[in-house]
Amino acid sequence: MTMVCISWNFLQLMLVLLQLLSHLTSTTAEPQVGNKDLDYLTLRSQGFEAYAENRYSEAAVLFTRAIDNFWFRRRVNSMCIEQCVKDKTLVDEVQTISVYLATSTCVDNCCHGKLGDPVVSPDPLIEHIFRKNQYYDVIQMCWHADRNYTGNIEAAETFLLHNPSNVGMFSRLQDLYKIFQVDGDVLPRMEPHYHSQYRRGVDSYNKEEWGQCVYYLDSAIENFIRSSNLCRAQCTYQYDKIPSQHKVTSFVSAAAEIVEKTGACRAQCYEDLNLRPFTNSPYLASILEYLQFCQYNLGSMQDGADTAYSYTLLHTRNPTINDNIELYSSQFGVKGTSRQDIQGFLNNHRIDMELLEKTDSKQQPREESVFRTDNSFGDKGFLSTEECNTLVYFAKEVSTENDGYDHFKDKGSSPFSSNEKYSGIELSRAIELLEGGQVEAEAAQLYLSVVEAAKSHLEKKFKLVKPLYFNYIHLVQRSAIEGSEKVSEYSHPIHADNCVIKPDGSCIKESPAFTERDWSAVVYLNSPVGGEFVITNSKFAVTESMQPSCGNIVGFSAETFHGVKAVEKGERYAIGLWFTHQISRAVDMVLLQRRIDNAKEKNAARASKDEL
C-alpha cells in the first residue's frame, strides 16, 4: 500500500510540474556560452583561502566571480528548460512519467553541451547561500578591510536586496553611507530585471509620469511571475546537483526524494524572489500598490479597480487600498476582479503549499511562541527531531568532561552542582576533530549552521540594528549522577551573563563577569526530567520559564537574571550561545566555515584516492 501511495504522489507531482512548465512559452535571452571560468565551488574555496591569508581584495574578486558563475549556470539551466518543455502537453498519467523523463534527459543534454559536467555541491547549505547571495556578506567584509568604500557599499546593498530582513546589514549600510558621505544610493549588483523595472516604475510614480509608471510596473509583475515559474521549474530540472539527504534504494524512494526536494525548493523560490520592497507591503503587493495609483491617475479606472482588488488577495492590512476599492465602486461604478496573472500566481502558490504539506513531516516544524518580553523570548519548533538527534549523538561521541572549565577537571562534577556530571564541546574544537578525521563533516556543519540560524532568529526577534557577533559557542551535556542526593534546586544558580549580581538586586559590570557580552541564547536538543530554564526579577521571583525539549530556544539580554534547575533524571543537551556587539571580541565564523569546507574537500580527496 505504501508503494502505491508514494507512486501516486509522484505521478501527481509530475502532472503538476509539467502543467506548470507548459505555460513557460516565452523565450530567454540566451546567455553567452563557452564560459571558461572555474566553477563556483572552486572559486569559493579559493576565496576562503585568500580571506584567511588577509588577501582581501583578491578574496572579494574570487567570491564575486563565484556568484557570477553560479547564476550564469542557472541562466543556462533556465534556457534549456524552456527549450525542452516547449510544445509538450499531457494526456494521461503514463505519458506524464515518460514526458518527465524525456524532459529531464533533454535538459541534462542541453546543459552538458553548454556547461560541461554538472557541479555537485558537497552540502545543501552551500547551494542555499549562493541562491540568497549571502556571500556578499563576506565580500562586504573584504572590501571594508581593503578600504574600498564603493565595493563595500555595493556589496552591502546587494546582500540586503536579497536578504531584506537582515537588520544587522541594514544598520551597517546606514553607517557606511554616513561614514563615507556618499551622495545618493549605490545600486546593487545582481539586480533582477523585475526589480529594476519596479525601481523605474517607482521613480516614474514620484515624477508623476503615469504612463511610464504603468508600463514599468506591469512589466515588473510579468517578469516577477515568469521568474517564479522558472525557479519552480528548476526545482525539478536542476542540472547542478545537490546531494541526497536520504539513501535512494528504489523507484519508490526516488519518487519520495523528488517530492520532498521539490516541495522545499519551491517554498524557497518565494523567499528568494521577494526582495526589499519600496513600501511596507510584501514585495508583489508593493508593486500592485504603486500600479493601482498610477492607473487611477492615468484614468484607467477598471484596471485600477482590478489591481486594487488583486492587492487584497496578497495583503489585507492596508486601509488605503480598501478605501480605494470602495471609491472605484461608489464614484466610478466599477467593481474590481482578480487580475488573471495574479490569480495564476496564487494558484501556483497554493499548489506548492499543498505539496510542501505532504512532506511536512520532514520539514522544519512550525515555530510557536511560549513567552515574549522586551528583552527575552522562548519559542518552540526551532529545530527538527532529526537535527536534534544528530547533535545529541555528536555530543555523546565527542564531548569532554568539564569542557570550558579547566579548573574543575579534577573534581569529577559539574561546575555548578555536585549531583551532576558536565561535559561539552566548543565549535572550534569540533572543527579541530573534523580536521583530524575524528568526526563526520555533516555533524560539524550542522553544529555551525544551527548556531548561525539561532543568531538570525535572535536578531529578528529583538529587531537588532547594531551588528551582532558570536562571542562563545558551546554544546553542553548535564546528567544527574545516579544515586546522588539532590543538594540544590538549581544546577546553575540565578545569575546574569555580563554583570555581577549584588545583594541589593543590582547588577554591576565588573570582573569576573564577561562584560563584553550583550545577548545570550540557548537551543535545546532533548527532554530530560528537570533542567528547566527560568528568568527571574531582581528579587529572584520566577517570571518566565522554558522546559528543555528538542527544538526549544530561549534568547535574552545578557543582563537578564536567569538560571537552570537541576537535572533530576537523564541527560540535558543544549547549545549555549553568547553574543557581543564588539567586533574585536568576535569569533571569526567565516574562518570556521572555511576550515569545515577545506576538511570536507580533503576528506573527499582522501576517499577518492582510497577507492583507486
Provide a brief overview of the structure.
The protein has 612 residues and is α+β, with helices and mostly antiparallel strands.
Q: What this model shows, in words?
A:
The chain is an alpha+beta fold. The protein has helices at residues 2-21, 40-52, 56-85, 93-115, 124-131, 136-145, 149-162, 167-180, 193-206, 210-234, 251-273, 283-298, 301-314, 319-332, 340-358, 385-398, 427-435, 441-462, 589-611, and strands spanning 368-373, 376-380, 400-401, 420-426, 469-480, 490-495, 500-501, 507-508, 519-524, 529-530, 533-536, 542-546, 553-557, 562-565, 567-569, 571-580. An 8-stranded antiparallel sheet has the order 1-2-13-9-16-5-4-3. A 4-stranded antiparallel sheet has the order 6-14-11-12, with no helix packed on it. A hairpin with a 5-residue loop joins strand 7 (500-501) and strand 8 (507-508). The relative contact order is 0.08.
